[in-house]
Amino acid sequence: MFNDIGALELVTLVVLAVLVFGPDKLPKVIQDVSRFIRKVREFSDNAKHDIRSELGPEFKDFEFEDLNPKAFIRKQLTENEDLKEIRSSFDLKKEINEVADAVNGKEPGDSVPAGVGGTPGGATPDLLKKRETPDRRERPPFDSDAT
Description:
The two termini are about 50 Å apart. It is flat and about 75 Å long. The chain contains 4 helices and no strands. With about 150 residues, it is mainly alpha-helical. Among the domains are: about 1-55; about 65-105, no CATH class.
């Protein structure tokens, strides 16, 4: 639960607790907090048990952590054999290089890796060219939406 708390944070919390509650009330506060945490855990475990019993025997191996979308997707990607086969046959870097070559007008067998160099003929794309600076006396165009 508190795996990411370092030693300095723990010492700071202890000193802060002693200052707020005082050394004579601190043991009672710690007991009350630990009792509260125990009751919350017990309530949570009972609720999980009730939900599993209501769902029936086909959901006996149901884990509540699977309700987290990230955990669910990660589990499906690692356990599903069809997805493993698709993922192993799909080379993302190769696909990106082919798309980049098609956009730049290169043949797929060129030796220059994608993202290096410019367009064919050595010219840089218009998006990468430096814009000419307007004359200092000239006002920039007014954009009513920007104000």
